[in-house]
Design brief:
The structure holds two protein chains of two kinds. Chain A is mainly α. Helices cover 68% and strands 2% of the residues of chain A. In chain A, the strands form two sheets. A two-stranded antiparallel ribbon of chain A has the order 1-4. In chain A, β2 and β3 form a beta hairpin. Classes of the chains: A mainly alpha, B mainly alpha. Chain A: It is found in: Cell membrane.
Chain lengths: 376, 342
């Protein structure tokens, strides 16, 4: 029992999440059986989750710094429109010979647009000190506006046939885009837990003032973080465009709430500094399973809205109680302290402060973050 | 310099943001008027007053929430939910009275706002995420329970249609008849009431105090929960009021409209000088912010630009205003060696 309690105490949120995911999956399999576990459903689940996974990863990154990025969906749409415009044949007519080059150019255009959007957010937040929520609110409106002016609200179709194959390509029955997302999760997990940049992101979220006074160029960390978010958003755009084969303003609007939902579900602290990529992967599995169960059960979009909204509230209330609950009946000072957590190899680990509410002796998040989990 | 009329009316100097917005508005009006003299007419003004009334009421609620240090994205959902609930109730009971509609709608809005407040203060949760959740949940609940049937002008309660087209003053001209909407006195009443609450009552002081520093406010003996309960219920009630005005103005009851414009309204209030970190914000600034949004939304055609330019213009103005506002703050902070975390 003691061992179980100790494992649970190591990361309470993760434990709760594992339990929730496992029980949800059990219920869904018992309820829907073959329809849920069919190869077709699993395949469509894994390609839907990849489209969204990149956005969730981006939102998670913003939340680690204590910010939020409201512009991810509109940036993705803008990136998609840029990519689609290149590939639509409007600028350069598509021929047999240049279609591959155009496709590459289109993908590049989407990625660069995404990164530019991220750069703008980063500069606004870091250099002008606009709170992230406001800066990204502004850029959200701006990106949508640019997209509207370029397309006039029309959808931009893609005339390169092989591009749509990208979204449908499978490797040993696993969608290519799912493999791509898995790689992204592993890379981000590694980057956040094992690199100096990752540690600085967590530290910034924990206490940005302390980070500044430990000699880290704070502003550069933030700008880089938002550019990374932009890159993830750009990849999401590439996937979105290839799946729908066109781009249009207003596409994927519901993703914003869902991205916030899954990140909060994964136990990320909206005030920054806490959250693990492996939890995010679990949260995605949970959300996607529910999503496809709703589709199988043919719920209408309003019922889904109701469920997502209530779920978001419920999760936050549960997290509130989880944060206060201590499975190990020992005094906080004897709580598990990761060896070496306060003696990092760089000067950046000066401010190892716990939040005032952390009476429960959480293990240091930076030390306990492990290389990103493999979703699915 | 003589006392400016501004000082006389508001008993305070104008804030930097208010001056900045006034300049933008005046410059914009001059440009539009030069480009297209048709813009300068009572008709345009009356049109803008009519379409801006509902938004103005919502913005006042948002202002209060922002001053208290929170952010609410559920108010458009609350407006639609309470307005639609009240219309459905009128249809079911066969009561065709606009006062009844207002009463039901305001009560429902108030209730939904109170739920927000309780969730936020009981569990100490970030207001943005709570209201994102409740917005979705409220709207979903309404659609699931009451359905999403929409009512065109002929089928909706006729008292609402009449109310929507009622005028205080009607002017006949060669271009047609146009009138000053009855929404105007309601908006003025709401502005006056809110001004009174904010600047002439203890409650108003408490809202500012909670927004500036919740910890100090609670140590002063201010009941945080009760203050927040008021703020969110008031904002909810205003949303309920707006719901009926909105449907009356459109003369069409559509339960899936309006939701999605909340961030635009928040943005308008923010460029009016309300600080997201709380404790700051003025009613005049809010009015000016809404005027900017309304100008861009309804007058770009006078410049020969399609409505697809709305967002681009507004986004750019918003970012510039935020940049100016927060960069000044940053320089000031650096001078006095303040490195706040938020």
């Amino acid at each position: 029992m003691n061992l179980v309690a100790r494992i649970v105490a190591r990361d309470k949120n993760l434990s709760v999440l594992v339990l929730m995911t496992a029980s949800t999956l059990t219920v869904l399999v018992a309820l829907l059986g073959g329809r849920f576990l069919s190869a077709g459903n699993l395949q469509s689940m894994s390609s839907q989750v990849s489209e969204f996974g990149f956005l969730a990863l981006a939102m998670g990154l913003a939340m680690l710094t204590g910010g939020i990025d409201l512009s991810i969906v509109s940036a993705a749409v803008l990136a998609g429109i840029m990519g689609a415009t290149v590939m639509s044949g409007q600028l350069v007519p598509v021929t047999e010979s240049n279609s591959n080059a155009l496709m590459l150019a289109g993908i590049l255009a989407a990625l660069v647009t995404g990164m530019m959007c991220g750069l703008l957010n980063g500069v606004l937040v870091a250099k002008l000190s606009i709170p992230p929520i406001l800066a990204t609110l502004g850029t959200m409106i701006l990106f949508t506006g640019i997209g509207m002016v370029i397309t006039d609200g029309q959808s931009v179709p893609i005339s390169i046939v092989s591009y749509s194959a990208l979204g449908a390509t499978t490797i040993a029955n696993i969608p290519l885009i799912f493999v791509l997302m898995t790689v992204a999760f592993l890379v981000m997990g590694f980057a956040l837990s094992r690199t100096r940049f990752g540690r600085r992101i967590y530290l910034f979220g924990e206490n940005s003032v302390a980070l500044r006074f430990s000699g880290v160029r704070n502003e550069r960390v933030i700008i880089l973080t938002y550019v990374t978010i932009g890159l993830l958003v750009g990849i999401a755009a590439v996937i979105m465009v290839s799946r729908v084969n066109s781009a249009r303003v207003g596409f994927g609007e519901s993703y914003l709430l869902q991205a916030i939902l899954v990140v909060v579900l994964a136990g990320y602290n909206p005030y920054g500094g806490r959250g693990r990529v492996i939890s995010l992967a679990l949260g995605l599995i949970l959300l996607q399973s529910l999503q496809s169960a709703f589709t199988i059960l043919q719920f209408n979009p309003y019922v889904k809205n109701l469920i997502w909204g209530s779920l978001l509230l419920l999760v936050m209330v549960v997290n509130y109680y989880v944060a206060r609950w201590n499975p190990l009946p020992v005094s906080p000072s004897l709580g598990p302290k990761e060896p070496g957590s306060a003696s990092g190899s760089t000067g950046s680990s000066v401010a190892v402060t716990h939040r005032p509410l952390g009476k429960d002796a959480d293990p240091d998040p930076r030390a306990s973050v492990e290389a990103g989990g493999q979703p699915g | 310099m003589k006392t400016s009329p501004f000082r006389v009316i508001f008993n305070r100097p104008s804030t930097a943001m208010e001056k900045y917005l006034l300049t933008i508005i005046l410059a914009y009006i001059v440009i539009v008027a030069l480009k297209n003299p048709l813009f300068f007419s009572l008709e345009t003004l009356f049109d803008m007053l009519r379409s801006g009334s509902g938004v103005m009421i919502l913005a006042v609620g948002v202002l209060l929430v922002l001053i208290s240090g929170g952010i609410d994205v559920s108010f458009t959902a609350i407006a639609v939910v309470s307005g639609y609930t009240s219309v459905q109730l009128m249809m079911a009971l066969g009561i065709d009275n606009v006062l009844f509609a207002f009463m039901v709608s305001i009560a429902v809005g108030c209730l939904l706002g109170a739920v927000n407040a309780l969730l936020i203060s009981r569990f100490k949760l970030p207001t943005l995420i709570v209201t994102l959740g409740t917005a979705s949940a409220y709207h979903g609940l309404m659609a699931t329970v009451l359905g999403t049937k929409s009512y065109p002008t002929g089928a909706m309660p006729q008292s609402m249609v009449e109310f929507g087209s009622a005028n205080l003053v009607v002017i006949n001209s060669e271009t047609g008849r146009y009138g000053l909407t009855v929404f105007l006195p309601i908006v003025i009443f709401v502005l006056g009431l809110t001004w009174f609450i904010l600047y002439r009552t203890m409650l108003g002081r408490q809202i500012f105090a909670v927004g500036s520093n919740e910890e100090s406010a609670s140590r002063l003996g201010i009941n945080i929960t009760r203050t927040k309960l008021f703020v969110y219920s008031y904002s909810g009630a205003l949303s309920g009021l707006m719901g009926i005005i909105y449907f009356s103005e459109l003369k069409y009851v559509n339960p899936v409209s309006l939701v999605g414009s909340e961030l635009m309204i928040i943005a308008a209030v923010v460029i009016g000088g309300a600080k997201l970190t709380g404790g700051e914000g003025t009613i005049l600034g809010t009015i000016l912010g809404i005027v900017v949004v309304q100008l861009f939304q309804s007058t770009l055609v006078f410049l020969g630009l399609g409505s697809s330019w709305n967002d681009l213009f507004f986004g750019a103005v918003l970012l510039m205003s935020l940049g100016v506002m927060y960069y000044r703050q940053r320089i000031q902070d650096r001078k006095s060696l303040v490195f706040a975390t938020s």
